[in-house]
């Protein structure tokens, strides 16, 4: 089987030509063998209008796939399309349009369904999305916020976190469905999620929800201080500031942690903020490790997990909880290909978007 894989991010779109075949054995039911040819398309300049940037991106993607063999399906990263179960969904025009104008928030992943559908229609094959960031499997007690009318939500790196949790469970000799895993995704966004028996039972979220600050997002803030800030800042402007001018960007002037890895060695104010990040991530891992019993493993992933010395300091704080599995970068292209492959090979049923919205 051949699948085109499309993963739109905030700064680039990652693509892959995936060759997928079953490698099932009685001991490993549903196991797939994947071969991925990876490509990356840097996003056009941000000067143009949304429509111009979108047209430029489509042209660059079309150019990248022009010589690829005909696919059996196209699979894209899903978007914020409402609370739903984890799984693989067929992209319809309705789903694609909903994602483009989602009432659940704006994010680069909202474009994945449309890009997949457009390419799939050119080849007369189905388009899929897998484990969108709005996967919502929270425990009822995890939804309670502490104030009437405010409910905690589930918006996190579901695609990568689930794939990493599966990998971590395997590394400690467990099946994902029979394990407890805490996953800290340290990327452009940060999310810390507790998985129990294959379900994301609680998460910090990643889009101005809760949790540690990120390279440019604010994370959880003291409520009183946030109230004061809210009453002297126009709402849309404040949302933009907390989303793009918070975190490391707001505190030490850059969201590039490769730069900060060097600056930390000589600049005390950078070292304090890096230590604060480690402190917050460690606290969050500890909190999400206290749900239903000690986890079988803690996994640290995302681009920031490439900072070895930073990850080591987090491990020093949380290593007493459970074995720490480090998977720098992300497994999103693999997870998208596997999700499509499981359906194409008849190993898994499609989820129905309209029926499964929780
Ligand atoms: N080798 C590295 N060392 C430290 N930080 C890194 C490294 N590589 C990437 N990062 C940081 O990871 C973050 C991006 O994470 P990534 O998961 O790639 O992004 P996205 O969430 O957009 O997919 C950026 O803040 C970047 O500075
Ligand atoms: C809903 C979480 C998605 C997210 O924050 O992704 P990035 O870290 O890639 O921005």
For this entry, give a set of tags.
single chain, 358 residues, alpha/beta, Nucleotidyltransferase, domain 5, five-stranded mixed β-sheet, 13 helices, 20% strand, binds adenosine-5'-diphosphate, binds the ligand CCCC(=O)OP(=O)(O)O
Structure description:
α2 (93-100) runs antiparallel to α3 and α10 (268-288) packs across α11 (308-318). β1 and β2 (12-22) form a beta hairpin. This protein folds into two domains: 2-137 and 332-344, ATPase, nucleotide binding domain (Nucleotidyltransferase, domain 5); 158-328, ATPase, nucleotide binding domain (Nucleotidyltransferase, domain 5), CATH 3.30.420. It has a six-stranded mixed sheet. With 358 residues, the protein is of the alpha/beta class. The model has no long low-confidence stretch (mean pLDDT 94). It contains 13 helices and eleven strands. It starts with a strand and ends with a helix. The chain has helices at residues 50-65, 93-100, 112-123, 140-143, 158-171, 223-230, 235-244, 247-252, 257-263, 268-288, 308-318, 332-344, 353-356, and strands at 2-8, 12-22, 32-42, 73-77, 88-90, 127-130, 180-186, 190-196, 199-203, 297-302, 324-328. Adenosine-5'-diphosphate binds next to α9. It catalyses: butanoate + ATP = butanoyl phosphate + ADP.
